[in-house]
Amino acid sequence: MFHLLLATTSKLGASKVAGADAPAAAACAEPPMPVVVAGGDRVERAVSETHDLGGGRTVHMRALHDELQLTYVHNIASAAEIARLVELADARGGFIRSPLKEQAGGDVVQGGTRHAQRTSSSCPLLWPHAYANRRDAFADKPELLEELELAGNITERVAALLTAAGLETASSNIEPLQLVRYKAGELFGPHHDYHATGESSVQGEQRVMTVLVFGSTLAPEDGGETDFPHLGVSVSPRAGDAVAWMNVDMEGEPEDRSLHQGKPPLRGEKVAINVWVADQPFDVGNMGSAVRT
To answer: Three-state SS for 160?
Structure first.
């Protein structure tokens, strides 16, 4: 399903749609259609791919729009996994006011009217890639080890799914996961996830794809949709599922039509995890600065 031309690769191979090589996945019952609105009307989309990721986890995918390769992903995580990550983040006081990054320079806006564009709270999770050979540093901190394990499981799962769907991805291409929480009335206005210039990146990488994993379920009347203004598509959150899209075009250049926004919940709370996929692996041994989320 996913394809991209990268500077160091040719076009990636065809997707591995479930068939004779994945009988267990194909045999699983399809989950119900999520709430997706396109052009002002609720729409139905057929399951386009099914992948068995092992461990009893089958992931179904629905193509939502030709542009951005916008795709709905069922069952990429469990509600319990994400709820536990929220508990762990709360316990260590990890949530702060979500930063608002300058698109070109990467500087964080600390105040002023522009900061009102993003009013949610965020917690960058511990980065499994950075602690791959250093887990003994947390031997006496079981909560941090648990966070690393949960974040690592989701990271590896996303990498495995993207690879199965045609975009070869290693876990080292994925930034630290960013846990976000929107209370009633909080939002993230229209924005792009790509780096407009090299100055906003850490090692010259580009965020080619976003996988937004939902940690809560909200009914359409409760708001909290992820909305794509240029496409006229909005997706209501369902816990454990995700929506994925390309932030760049087929040549790897920033795609303006990837503009999106997190609408405010009208009631309740929306929790999600930003999974940002880069076009190159991160070299933690040569990390000049922390990844800015």
So the answer is: helix
28 CB neighbour count, 10 Å cutoff: 17
Name the helix (H) or strand (E) containing 164: helix 142-164
Please state whether the predicted TM-score (pTM) of the whole model is above 0.90: no
User: What is the spatial distance between Cα 283 and Cα 235, in angstroms, rounded to a whole number?
Assistant: 34
Domain for residue 96, yes or no? yes
Of the candidates 272, 275, 274, 276, which has an alpha carbon nearest to the alpha carbon of residue 239?
272
Domain holding 94, by residue range, is 23-283
Q: Which long-range contacts (CB under 8 A, 24 or more apart) does 40-48 make?
A: 40/232, 42/220, 45/72, 48/1, 48/17
> In a 3-state reduction of DSSP, which class is residue 207?
strand
Could you tell me the CATH number of the domain that includes residue 30? 2.60.120.620
For CA atoms 199, 205, 210, 212, give the dihedral sign.
negative
Say which residue, 134 or 70, is predicted with more confidence. Answer: 70
pLDDT digits (tens, 9 = 90+) for 215-238: 999 999 999 999 999 999 999 999
Q: Is residue 2 part of a domain?
A: no
In the chain, the number of structural domains is 1
Angstrom distance (rounded) from CA 227 to CA 254: 19
Using DSSP, how many helices (H) and how many strands (E) does the chain show? 3, 17
Nearest to 95 by CA among 271, 251, 221, 236: 271
